[in-house]
UniProtKB/TrEMBL annotation:
Residue stretches spanning the membrane: none
One Pfam family here: ECH_1
Lineage: superkingdom: Bacteria
Name this polypeptide is given: Enoyl-CoA hydratase/isomerase family protein
PANTHER family, per database record: EG:BACN32G11.4 PROTEIN (PTHR43459:SF1), ENOYL-COA HYDRATASE (PTHR43459)
Organism this protein belongs to: Mycobacterium servetii
Length: 271
């Protein structure tokens, strides 16, 4: 992932560039509030899949050009052809939007999202799936699926109840209520809401902290957290044991112990 990936379709692109051990992904279709065309979603899938297999990466940042984060999937761009045959969505979406959410949530790297303006539908769920979403205080999160006549997708019915609770999930998914970033942070939907001028700085500090951490242990902890959402205590304890066995075999584990003995800050290498 040392190169820049750029997929252009219907006036939009997704770019990914390497910055040392960090991967910076930018949604770049500001004239359409970064609504995602099928080609842009395909590029996200390819980029995140490559990142998952890159042992030299230690953190991922997803941000967007312009005033808004993402207005969701562009349904007009996705349906600008003749009427598809029955079952088209069932065949297509699992390999597109749904796969992006799975990759963001499941990749063994910490993922940070920086959100300005609107985060709508798939864009909202992309931010919810990230490990840490930092949003400008005037940003807005919105799940307008039902208002537009179709049911929620891209993980919203799984993510929202777990992050914000069932009652608040109903308000967003069934009533289409918009939620400001400050409330989203208080509800536990996102990591933090900050004043707009300091958003970039807040994300950079968080990204640097994560990229300087024990990458394998962070990935295993992320996996164990996700596993625990659908498991009982006994199963979660077993998962933790397997994760611990792997973490103890890393160079970063040895460095952590040595730093503790020497009473200094550890210098993790992500190995």
């Amino acid at each position: 992932m040392s190169h820049e990936a750029d997929a252009v379709g219907a006036g939009g692109s997704v770019t990914a560039c390497r910055d040392d051990a960090m991967l910076r992904i930018v949604l770049n279709r500001p004239d359409r509030r970064n609504s995602l065309t099928p080609k842009m979603i395909e590029t996200l899938v390819d980029t995140l899949t490559s990142a998952a297999a890159d042992d030299s990466l230690r953190a991922v940042l997803i941000t967007a050009a312009g005033r808004d984060f993402c207005a969701g999937a562009d349904w007009l761009a996705a349906n600008d052809r003749e009427r598809p045959r029955t079952g088209d969505l069932v065949r297509r979406i699992p390999h597109g939007a749904h796969r992006v959410i799975e990759l963001v949530a499941g990749i063994h790297l910490p993922v940070v999202c920086a959100v300005r303006g609107w985060a709508v539908g798939f864009g909202c769920n992309l931010a919810l799936a990230a490990d840490f979403t930092v949003a400008a205080a005037d940003a807005v999160f919105w799940e307008p699926f039902v208002e537009r006549g179709f049911s929620p997708d891209s993980g919203s019915t799984w993510l929202l109840p777990r992050l914000a609770g069932v009652a608040r999930a109903r308000r967003m998914l069934l009533l289409g209520e918009k939620v400001g970033a400050t409330d989203a942070a208080e509800w536990g939907m996102i990591h933090q809401a900050v004043e707009p001028p300091v958003l970039d700085d807040a994300c950079e500090k968080l990204l640097e902290r994560l990229a300087g951490g024990p990458t394998v242990a962070i990935g295993l902890a992320k996996q164990a957290l996700a596993f625990g959402q659908g498991a009982g205590l006994a199963e979660s304890l077993t998962q933790e044991l397997f994760s611990l066995e792997l973490a103890c075999r890393t160079g970063d584990f040895k460095e952590g112990l040595e730093a503790f003995r020497q009473r200094r800050a550890p210098r993790f290498r992500g190995r």
